[in-house]
Amino acid sequence: MARIIGGIGTSHVPTIGVAYDKGKQEDPAWTPLFEGYKPVAAWLAEKKVDVLVFFYNDHCTTFFFDLYPTFAIGVGEKFPIADEGAGLRNLPPLRGNVDFQAHIAESLVNDEFDLTVFQEKPIDHGCAAPLPLLWPHEPDWPGTIVPIAINVLQYPLPTALRCYRLGLAVRRAIESYPEDLRVVVVGTGGLSHQIHGERTGFNNTEWDMEFLDLLENDPAKLLQMTHADYVRLGGAESVEQIMWLSMRGALGNRIRKLHQNYYLATTTAMTVVLYEDDDGQGELLAFGEAA
């Protein structure tokens, strides 16, 4: 069967993609960020990962506020990289395994997640900014993508607990797929940042470190938090952290952190962290259950 072997949390700041495309890997302002992704890319190559499942948010590229789904999954053989104003990127389209994507979609609907399904729509920096730092892309990507978009823009948003339960359901879907695939789940966004209003430029490194510790060791505490809690602690846009909880929910009870890089040089705390699924089975306790 398909199985999840690890999880990645990563920022998806659009300027990461711009810096990558302009070859700024050796620029002193960007080197700490790019160097931080190299151990993750090496691990993915070593493990010969077949599929990356991305929990990300669309920034009004494919969806707009007149029709913005709570959860959406891409099903298709390929997805173009969106032009978000800096020109078309020199990246091949993302590849998809339709059978696998369709299986996950059907499983999630049967698990009572009402999904929007999209095809051949462009994927923006929510997924495409960190992807070339994780996977090589010449002449093509080494594996396929399952894009799962989560609404973190237009209220009402799904709760932290709902996003976590989505991760649990995705794990069940993956483990019920009969083909032998090595899968890694990726949660994107955050960490602390605010890019508008009176707190423009706000960051909270202390909270970022606490969030990363809780995510690894005690995620149940994060599930009790409201959107207002996340915004107060990390800034308005840091509500994206709930997408990391989908990644965490898809991992097993025991995980092991292999790598973490935290770099605060712009308005966003740019972070990448790699977890290995240590037990390969089971789920975290649903919130409210006794140990």
UniProtKB/TrEMBL annotation:
Signal peptide: none annotated. It comes from the Bacteria. SUPFAM superfamilies: LigB-like. The lineage of its organism: Bacteria, Pseudomonadati, Pseudomonadota, Betaproteobacteria, Burkholderiales. The keyword Lyase does not apply. Residues 8-270 form the Extradiol ring-cleavage dioxygenase class III enzyme subunit B domain. It comes from Duganella flavida. Keywords: Dioxygenase, Oxidoreductase. Pfam families: LigB. InterPro entries: Gallate_Doxase_N, Xdiol_dOase_suB. Its EC number is 1.13.11.57. The keyword Oxidoreductase applies. NCBIfam families: PRK13364.1, PRK13365.1, PRK13367.1. This is Gallate dioxygenase. One of its GO terms (molecular function) is ferrous iron binding.
